[in-house]
Amino acid sequence: MKKPWNRTDQPVYSVSSFHAGAANMHICTYSTAVSMQPKRFMVALYKHTRTLDLVERERRLVLQLLAAGQYRLIPLLGRKSGHDTDKLSILERRGLLTRWDGVAVLDEALAWMHLSVIDTLDAGDHVMMLCDLDRYRNHREGEPLTLDILRQRGMIRN
User: Fold this and answer.
1) Dist CA 83 CA 129 (whole Å)
2) Is residue 2 part of a domain?
C-alpha cells in the first residue's frame, strides 16, 4: 500500500524563476492554494537549486499548471540542475516557450500564475514560500499533469 501522502493524486506544476536577466524552470509538486481571500499559494522549492536561488533574489515567480502531455518535460525540468544546464535555451530550441507578463513560460501549460513571495519557512529539504497571487491566465483547455500520470509512466515511485 502507498504511504498516506502518496495516496491522493496531485497536480504537477513548473516554476519559472527569473532575476536580473537570468532565468530557470523547475518541476514543482509541493504547491497548493492556502487562502481564498486574499488568494495565496504555498510553493515549496527544493534546496540548492537555481530556481530557489533566483526566487529568493527576485521574490517573484510564475507557477505553471502543466498539461497531461507535458510529462515529457520531467527529465529536463525535474532531473537536470539549472546550475549545469541552460533549460530555457533547450526549451527555446524545441519551440516550447512563449512570454507572458514579461516572463518566459511554457506555451503548452494550461495556466500561469504570477506570484509574489511574502514569507518563507525552512521546511527540511525544501524552502516553503508563502505567496500572494498577483495575476493569472487560463491559457488552454485540457487535463492537468498529475502525480498519477507520472506514476503510470514509471517516472516516479509510489
Assistant:
1) 21
2) no
State the cell numbers at 106: 511554457
Q: Is-contact 97 77, C-beta < 8 A? A: no
- The answer to the question of residue 158 being in a domain is no
Domain extent, residue 40, equals: 10-152
Domain count within the chain = 1
DSSP secondary structure letters along 18-61: EETTEEEEEEE-SEEEEETTTTEEEEEEETT-HHHHHHHHHSEE
The per-residue b/e assignment along 26-36, b for 16 or more CB within 10 angstroms, e otherwise, is bbbeebeeeee
Q: What is the DSSP letter of 72?
A: G
Per residue of the chain (158 residues), give pLDDT as tens. Answer: 888 988 889 999 999 999 999 999 999 999 999 999 999 999 999 999 999 999 999 999 999 999 999 999 999 999 999 999 999 999 999 999 999 999 999 999 999 999 999 999 999 999 999 999 999 999 999 999 999 999 999 998 76
Place of cell 518541476: 27
Cell numbers standing for residue 77? 525540468
